[in-house]
Every structure is written in structure tokens, then in C-alpha cells.
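Hey, can you fold this?
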Amino acid sequence: MHPIQHSLNRPSGAKPFIRALAAFSIGLLVAVSGTVANAADIKPGGDLRAALTGEPDVLDPATSSIYTGAQVYEGIFSKLIDMDASGKFVSDLATSWTQVDPTTWKFDLVTNATFHNGEKFTSADVKYTFERILNPKTASAYAGLYAQIASVDATDPAVAVFHLKSPFGPFLTNLATNGQIVNKKAIESGDPARNPVGTGPFQFVEWTQGDHITVKKNPSYFKAGLPHLDSVTFRFLPVDQSRIDALSAGELDWADAIPLQQVTALKDDPRFTYVTSPVAGIPDFLALNTKKPPFDNVKVRQAVALAISRADIRDVAYLGTGELGLEEVPTGSSWYDPSGIFAPEADIAKAKQLLADAGYPNGLAVEYLGLPQYPELLKTGQVVRDQLKQIGIDMTIKPVDVSVWYDGYVSGNYQITSAYQERTIDPDNFYSLVIKSGGPINTTKYSNPAVDALIDKAAASVNEAERKDLYKQIRAIVSKDAPIVFTHYETLNYLMNKNVTGSAVTPTLSLHMENLGFSQ
């Protein structure tokens, strides 16, 4: 999860906490302010200085659990297919792809791609990549996205054939989102966490802890004319006035987030170019540990769900930006359907009654694990604390460092906290990872066999109407069981100086730095 927040470098408690479109039906419309540059408008070369909201954990795409890791490594690696800003699948390492039958997918591969260590890219790398992700020893949070892969045939170096255990609707979406291809020799003879080797547009140069990561142009990149830039330096900077001052002074060229209180003013500031999208973003939620009292009692969880005012969370924690959070996708998604959601609006009287029915007529005390480094998440906790007081729940906030939060979150050593799931494009990306029993980021320890069966049925279907109905059923059960309570949907905001062009927000949240450059 990349618990990403996009104005934050959230840990993976939501990434595979760490991202709503079907692999077979992409109904995404992305509205972007700003323009996508024509290559003729970009002068070759230049060193881009970019600000990220935090520092990566590792740069191994199979094991990274922080979104800022993905922001960097996605420029180092390539995938079989990608997704453009309109939600359309486009070629990357695969020139074409065909569904041979309901459980077989054939990918014709490029023949001119080379890894940064000089190894030629072939289908053997595709086979190795997914076998590694699925190997329990790798402990990849993305394993759940590819559990339906039975085998990969790499007999022909220029063709990769995936054999699935059953039909799998999200297959192409997952490949386009988290399917970075690695090289066996580079992984087993090097340090994939700190020295990544891919076939992407940029090569890793250095990582100065606590300050920056630098990548340089891959002169052997298999896509002609790309990248435009000579290098990109990713600096780790907080989302505050300092990065706006740095942009104004020419010390920065591009930033992945801007202070929320300045969005209204800066999006129309003539000094900058502002880029956003109403449908590519991050669902935020409260995580309630269903294996620890008092949240092992469903009535207590329901009471929390009914006490929440999402409008207050949006207005206070997110300063009016983003959307009210009711489910894993935004209102602009073809998958969005708020009908059947439990507790879409606060009901204090009912919440109090549920708490009394649960055996707490005089209220109770709980502890919220808070992240001071991520203002919006911490402010969400503060708003929730005030809201829960109305029903007799005394919630104290325990501020901890990211590493402490992450350890507590993944080990189940917490009662309640805030998290998020980055890159939820297909609903399966959320439910198979975060909600399904034993899911790689099911940190609430929630388990409902009926929900598990529906999740599996939805994933195995390739009928869009059937899948939408199944997710409607899943949401109705999960929202009532309330292992999580959606609180907000974050939209992303990029800001850059006027001489930087080519930036766009895409459904996969990849920065696509190969398309960026400086204006002629």
C-alpha cells in the first residue's frame, strides 16, 4: 500500500495501502488543468529539480511500501503496459497483447530494450519478475494482485504468455499499475533496494540519505526521443511554504504537492503551471483493529462510523480540497456507487445507542496512532477525536514516528489510526489487498467469508455489469461491518515553473518524468 497521501509520503499502511477501472472497460475521464506538451515544444537536455513529500523506503518495486519510492522507481523501470491520462492502456515493453482464451494472455515484446546493467530484456525477465513477486520469501505487498497467475511461459524470448488460474477482470489494470519488470542478474548480484536496475528512461545515480536521489538519462532507452531531460534530482521536502519559495526562486522546477491552504491561489498564479485530476487520487480511511477491544465489537465500529462528519474532515483537515470519502473510488470513476453504504451521514443518537448496546453506556477510552509528519492525517485524527466525544468515546492521540506507526499498523499493535490506499484503479486493487481475509495489507484483521467469496467472484468475472453489482454488495457488507471507515478522497496537485512542460496526473499516479522537459 503506499499509504500515500499525495501531499505526504505516507507509509504503506494503505499502499498496497499502497490507488477504478476494469481491465476490459476503462471509463475514466481525467480533467487536467495545464497542457501536455508536444515534443517539438521541449528542448533536449536539462537537469530537473523535483520536490517529493518524503523519502523512499527502498527502490525495489516488489518490496517498496511508500509511494515516494514508486515516484522514483517508476522512472527507472518499465512495465509490459501502461495507462495514459485518459485511462487507455498503452504499450510499454509489450508491443501488443491478446487474450487467447479466458485464462490465457499473450504479450508480444519489444526486442530493443536493455537493462541498465547491459542485460538484454527478454520474456525470461517477465517470468522472473512475477515469480519473484509471488514468492513468499519476497514478502511483496503486491502478491495479492497477481495471485491468479498460474505460470508464465517464456519459451519465445519475444513473447510472454500468462496462464491464469481463472478469468481475472483486473489483470491488465494490475500490470499497468504495479508490474515493473526486473532483471534476475541485477536482483541477485546487486542491491535492489538501494541500487535499482531497470529498462526505464532513467538510470539510478545516487541516494544521499535525508536529502535527495538523482537519476540520469538512459542513453539506450528503447523509446526513441525519450527522455528529454539529462537528469532528475528528487529532493525530500515538506509540503509547506519553503517549496513554494524554492519554486519562485528557481531553486526547484517541479513539486508533487502544494500546501492545501494555497491551492486556490496558486492554481491561477501566472508564475506557475498547475496540474490536477478529479479522478486520480487516494482514498483515506480510519482503520479499526477488529482483533483488539473495543473494536472487536461490530457495534462499537458502527458507532464510530455513525459519529463521523466527512464534511468536517474535508473542511478542516483538507481545507476544503478533495471529495467526501464514501468508498474506494471518487465520484468521477465508472465504478462509483454510493447506494447501500452504511452511515453516509452522521447520526449521533443512533451512534450513542449502538455504544450502549455494545456494553458501553457510559462511554469508553481508545488510543489513536497519529503521524505528526503528515498534517492531513493528524488533523483527521483531531477532527475524529472531537466527533467521537459527542458519543462518549474519549480518543487520545499518540503521536509517533513513521517507522513506529508502520510497525504498529502492520503488526496489529494499534486500536485506531488513519491510513490510505494509493493507486486504487480497479476496486479489486482495494478489496483483495485491504479487506480480504489474509490480504497483504489487511491490517484490521477483518475476516468475513461471505465478503471473501464476493471479492473472488468479482475478480474472476470479465462482465462489467456483473462486477459493478458485486462491488455494490461488497461495499454494503463492509461498510456495515466497519473494519474501515472512509473519511476522504484526496486529489493530487502538481505545481511547476512555467518553463517546465509535459507533466500530467495519470490513473496509476506515475510521474512519467520521461515526458517532462523545459520549454524551447
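Oh, and this one too while you're at it.
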Amino acid sequence: MIRIRQVKVALDCEDKLCDIVAKRLKIASSNILEVHIQKKSLDARRKNDIHYVYEVDVKVKEEGRILKKVFSKDIFLTPKEEYQYPDSGSVSLSSRPVIVGTGPAGLFCAYMLAKAGYHPLIIERGEKVDERVESVMKFWETGVLNPNSNVQFGEGGAGTFSDGKLNTLVKDKYFRGKEVFSIFVEHGAPSEIMYLQKPHIGTDLLRDVVKNIRNSIIRLGGEFLYSTCLTNLVISDQKLVGIEVNHQEIIPCSVLVLAIGHSARDTFSMLYDRGVMMQAKPFAVGVRVQHPQKMIQFSQYGSLDSRLPVADYKLTYTTEKGRGVYSFCMCPGGYVVNASSEEGGLAVNGMSYHDRGSENANSALVVTVGPDDFGHHPLDGVSFQRELEKQAYLAGSGHIPVQLYGDFKDGIFSTSFGEIQPVMKGRYQFSDLKDVLPDYVSSAICEAMPAFGKKITGFDREDTIFAGVESRTSSPVKIIRDDKGEANISGIYPCGEGSGYAGGITTAAMDGIKVSEWIIQKYKPFF
């Protein structure tokens, strides 16, 4: 096949893609046998010339002759871009590999191991996704929290209650990312994620995809245990020989994948106490901001043309004191959700359904923090997050604390909303968010907002809704692993976002595949 890059297509000409490609190849459309889209992105840099840019693979008659005539940096023979399984190692396993966590890192590690014949055991502290959804809905309606099954914990991980964004900046020379997308599509995700510049699944579709991956793992010989929490390690001579679950049962284990997620604070503490090497790492904290989605559309595109996709944004700013402020996990047409996982603490996140159909856009507006702010002990970041969430819980009397931006910067307690009405999952209450955030975070946000308003018209409008606290942007710890993927205790494989090696669904899934490769390369399949 022939690959063609930089194929410019007007908004009203997408049905003419084949003709446009034929013109680039200087052939008649009838000579084209197949067209496969590889990439599709929107170029909205000039609002009077918004168009799509495609990259396609084309099957044609007389490929060699045509390619010789039109070959260039943008027209060339389609390269081979396929993920390759590694060869199995020679070391025998005394027990099947155990994976802790069913977020994207754990699920994809388990899927690859199961497919290669390793019959993994996957343990998850939370519930299956359907039961988990019921627990989360009950929490949003009543405030009754299940500490082990919530927006953070349970089958699918924290990403199950998110926008389901799949974009990543990680370089992918081994095509792990392409394999992740292929597995998603095979299990029910929209096929368009294979080529869209900013792919997303949406929380509603992602739930079924998670179930389908679980069922494939079971068919391939894997096993799942739910409501099963890792509570201790059994170690002999710096080697793992077993794990304790739910403070009672011992499971033999010589290979353990820690795909525990960024909110497994009790597990972090247990691992630290057992001598697993880790260190504090930077993350970011702040608030969720809500604006009308139509405002974002008009600012980004200059119109409300229904042919255009739901608009998003990405904003960055550096304060006069050198601290970074940026938007994170932007959810077009989404909801701000109560994402708490501990009693007496409150954290928020953003979530969108596949259609991104709500009235509001939201994103985290966060400020970088690091060990110099909260301490250099490996668990000091955890303590810092907990204190913020405790203050948020108190400020909102257990509900999501909210405040208008204009009141936040002026130090005024909000009493009513403006034109922007909140779109939230979970109860909320007017509060003073400066009582929640450190002064340096509040002042950084106030400094950044006017700058963001120059990039997105209306971003700094007075009735912009702030909700707090956004504290779970990434893991506060990094569990150290060597160049073969193991921690300082042999047999333990830190994995994914919670261990400090990913940020988001795709990068976590890719890291799950990477960890599976290390295990496959060392060990024989387990039968």
C-alpha cells in the first residue's frame, strides 16, 4: 500500500476523500481499490480556513508504477507498523503471576500475559464495573461512600469515571500504543480511536470495553478476585514468595505486578513499611473550572458550526515566581464529579460521556507542587493530598466546595451562580476555596487566569465556576524499578500511573504491556 500524508480536506468535502487522494496520486479514482485512514486531525489555526488533515494508506492498481511517479516525503510505501510479542524466557514460575489492580495498566498487563499462556491471577480491591457503577451513583446521590469501590477504586480504575481520553505524547517505536488501541477496538471501542488525533471513548462506552477485556482474559486462562485488597508481602532473602490479601489469606506468589493506581495510599504505606524503595515525586493541585461549552466552541473555532467536533483546549502559564499553572484532563461537554475515596476527605475530577453532550466544559486548573513544598519523605506527598482533601471536605460540609472565580480572587464568599450553571455529579455547596488551597496555589491561579483569558475568550469571566479540590492529578510517589522492571525486592514489578510510570489511560496501558514483556522475556509460560 501507499501512504499519503498531509491530505487537506475541507469540512464539506469529507465524502470526497477518495477523489482528493486520487488527485494527489495523479490517477483516476477508479484505480483506487481501498483507502484506510491512519490519522485525522483538525487544523483550526486560521478560523477562516478550518479543515481536516488526513494521513491515509491506499491500495491501488499498478502500485510500483504509481509510487515511482509520485514518490516524495509525503508519499511513500506504507511501512510495517506492528507490535511484536517478545520470546519467552527460560525461568520456571513456581506460581502464576499476580496482578494487583484492574485499571488500564493492570488489565493490559493481564491481557498480554494471558494471551501468552501465563494464566495470571488479577486481584482488585473494588467491585466489578457494574456493581461499582451502582456504588458510585449511590455515593453521588446520598454521600454514602464505599472506601474500596468508588471513582478511584474498582474494575477499570480511575479512568472508568473520566472522559476516556486516549491521547499521549509518549514515543511509540515499539507500537505498544497502536496495540492498545487495537485491543480497545477489538473489545467494543469505536474504530475511530485508531486514527483520530485526540481519541476518546467516554465513560459510558468504556465500562463495556472493560468488561469485554475481562472476559477475554478469563477465556485465555486468567482469573479475577474482586473485593480483594493486597495487605502485606511475604518476603524471604529479598525475594517475594507470597502475598497477604484482606489481612487474612496468604497466596503463593513470586511475580507480583503493582498496578495499584495513584490513590492506593494504604498500599503505598504498606509497601514502604516492607522495605520497597520509593520516593516522593512532583504532581499538581488546584481546582476544576467550568465554562459553557458553546463559549469554548466559539473561542476556538470562531463559529458554532455543527460539523466541527466538540472543542477542547490546553493552557499553560509560568508565574513570576516560576511556578507552573496548567489545564489538565480537559473534559469537553462533561461533568465535574465527586471523586473521593476516603472518609472525611473530598477530591474532584472531570468526566464525559462519549457524546460529550453536557452544557459545560470543565478542566482541572492546577499548580505544580513538589517535595520542596510538602516534604521529601516518600509519603509526604500523600499526607499533603490528604490535608487538602480534609480541608475541602470541611469547607463544603461533605459536599463539593464551589466558588465563582470573581469571588475567589476578591476573597468574597459566593452566594449565587451567574449565567454559568454547574453541571456536577455529587452535591455541592458554596465555600471559600482559599481556605482549602495553600496561598501559593491560590495566588498562582489568580495570576494565571487573565493570561488564559487572552487565549480563550471568556475564560476569566467573573462567573466561572471553581470546584475543589483537584488533588489526584498523578501519583505522589514513584516506586523504583530497575532496567528489567523489578523493584529492589525481587519479583515485584511496579507498573502504571500509581507506581509513577504513566499519566493517563493510554500511557498506563502501554506500561502494562511493557511490564508484561519483562515478565515474558524472563519466565516460561505457566501451565
